[in-house]
Amino acid sequence: VTWESANTWSSSGRGEENNTAPPGNDKNLMTGYLDTNATDPTTVTVTGLDGEFSAGYNVAIYIQGGVNGRGGQYTITTKNRTSTLSLVTDGAFDGTYVPGGEPGNNFLVMAGFVAPEFTLTALPTTGDTARAPINGIEIVAIPIPEPSTLILTAIGAAGLCVFGRR
Description:
Blueprint: E1 2-4, E2 7-10, H1 25-29, E3 32-35, E4 42-46, E5 57-62, E6 71-77, E7 82-88, E8 107-113, E9 118-126, E10 136-141, H2 147-165
Antiparallel strand pairs: 1-4, 2-3, 4-9, 5-8, 5-10, 6-7, 6-9
C-alpha cells in the first residue's frame, strides 16, 4: 500500500472535535485521516492482491474528516474497471458506522473487484474549503466457493430445469 496526500490531519486536538465515539479502535480509526487540499486529490494504491482475493473483493472507504459538510468523489480504478461514489460528511462520528452516499453516512462500499491492484482517488468537491478525507480502507475478500457447494448448486439448477420442462 502506498499513498500520496497533500496533508495528514486529526479530528482531535485542534478545535475540530468531530469524533464523539467512545475510546477504542473505532474512535482511533475515525480520528486521523489523509487530507486533500482544496484542489488536489489524495490517492491510495494497493498492489499484490492475490490468493484469498482471487475470487474478488469489496472495498470499504471510511470517511469522516475533521469538519462537517466536506466531501467529494471517491473513485477506484483497476486495469479494466472504474467505479465512483460521492459522500459528504454530516455529523460527528459517534461510534456508529453508516454505509452509503447520503449525508450523515460515514463510509462507502465499492463491490466486485477482481484485479490484483487498484488505485483509490479522493477528489474534493464540497465544502467552504473542499476536502475529501480518507480515514481508512478495508479490503474484504469474496469467499471462494467450496467444490461441494458448486456441485450442489449445479444439481439444484439441473433439477429446476427438469421441473421447468414438465
